[in-house]
Write a structure and sequence with these properties.
Length: 162
């Protein structure tokens, strides 16, 4: 009887030992970035921000000055875009390039500018689509940096702002 209990306990222990490795697979840099992208596409800024480290740095090459911190990135970037473009679609083009804790990919961002921008720019009601590329660093299951590079001039022209 003791041998059967021992074997059953060993089987349960082996199963429990395997569970953390499955959970860790969800925290791979690629999985974290894909979940972040999915939250954007679900138009859930709070969920998207959950994937950011508290000390995240967000860099938009068209702005030139990084946004520092999770709350500033949520309100200044995610909320700003999702309020101005409630139907936003951020689609990865092809497979991402992953190396260690870095993830990069080309993308297309599209939607209709039906809401005002945080800087006071009024909604244009115009449809747009532009391409770009992003580079992410992920540590301990959180995005620690995001850098976006895209055709801002083409984007502004599509909105009729230039």
């Amino acid at each position: 009887m003791h041998r059967r209990q021992f074997l059953a306990s060993a089987a349960v222990a082996a199963l429990l030992a395997a569970v953390p490795s499955v959970a860790l697979a969800q925290d791979t840099p690629q999985a974290v970035v894909e979940a972040y992208l999915a939250a954007w596409n679900a138009h859930d800024s709070a969920k998207a921000a959950e994937h950011l480290a508290d000390n995240v740095t967000y860099y938009d090459a068209s702005v030139g000055k990084p946004v520092e911190g999770k709350e500033a990135a949520k309100t200044g970037v995610i909320d700003n875009f999702l309020k101005a473009v409630p139907d936003a679609a951020w689609q990865m083009k092809g497979a991402p390039v992953v190396q260690d804790d870095r993830v990069s990919f080309e993308w297309e961002f599209s939607g209709i500018n039906s809401g005002d921008w945080a800087d006071g720019t009024k909604a244009t009601g115009k449809k747009f689509s532009f391409t770009g590329a992003s580079m992410f660093s992920v540590k301990d299951g959180k995005i620690t940096s995001q850098s976006d590079y895209y055709d801002a001039l083409g984007f502004y022209k599509q909105l009729g702002l230039m």
